[in-house]
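F.,

This is the one I mentioned.
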């Protein structure tokens, strides 16, 4: 199970997350986000992950591919999560891509194209006022029959209390959790991270026991 925890702003939260089997940590470069970090700050935070094996993901809402690539290099990112296909195309030879889509309704899912090569998809709920981290989920039932689910990360409102419901609806490649492990935007809770992984463990054993 690929588990991306996103929206880190503090070193102590990254150190706490590294005590769990986290796959990737996300840094948000969307200036309007309460979880925004600068390129310089992201570089400092990224050093906390040295030697942990946790991948570093930058979340970008802009379309300046050259600027994104330069920032990704300075912060030593492993992935760029972008929301524009043209930008993804320009970046693909420079960094691995998480091709992100915000869904208004189930009809939007039909327009999501297959990921290219070793790219991953990410599906989140659309919100006109936010770039993510709203704590709101989309209709997970719409994932039934979605042919790319095995290369898809699901985001939006996931927490320890509802992750079982997600895996009842679908078995995606991974999940992306931000507000579901927070006490406040950008302030992570080690206890909520623990609860999330406890819930994931229960779901995993339940599914494989059937």
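My design for it:
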């Amino acid at each position: 199970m690929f588990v991306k925890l996103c929206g880190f702003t503090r070193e102590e939260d990254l150190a706490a997350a590294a005590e769990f089997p986290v796959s990737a940590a996300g840094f948000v470069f969307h200036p309007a986000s309460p979880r925004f970090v600068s390129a310089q700050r992201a570089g400092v935070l990224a050093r906390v992950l040295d030697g942990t094996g946790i991948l570093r993901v930058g979340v970008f809402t802009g379309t300046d591919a050259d600027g994104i690539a330069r920032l990704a290099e300075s912060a030593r990112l492993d992935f760029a999560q972008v929301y524009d296909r043209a930008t993804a195309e320009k970046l693909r030879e420079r960094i691995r891509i998480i091709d992100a889509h915000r869904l208004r309704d189930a009809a939007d899912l039909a327009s999501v194209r297959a990921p290219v090569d070793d790219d991953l998809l990410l599906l989140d709920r659309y919100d006109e006022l936010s770039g993510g981290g709203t704590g709101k989920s989309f209709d997970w039932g719409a994932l039934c029959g979605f042919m790319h689910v095995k290369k898809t990360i699901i985001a939006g409102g996931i927490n320890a209390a509802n992750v079982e419901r997600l895996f009842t609806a679908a078995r995606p490649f991974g999940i992306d959790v931000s507000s579901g492990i927070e006490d406040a935007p950008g302030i992570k809770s080690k206890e909520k991270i623990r609860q999330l992984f406890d819930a994931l463990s229960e779901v995993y054993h339940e599914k494989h026991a059937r």
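The radius of gyration is 16 Å.

Talk soon.
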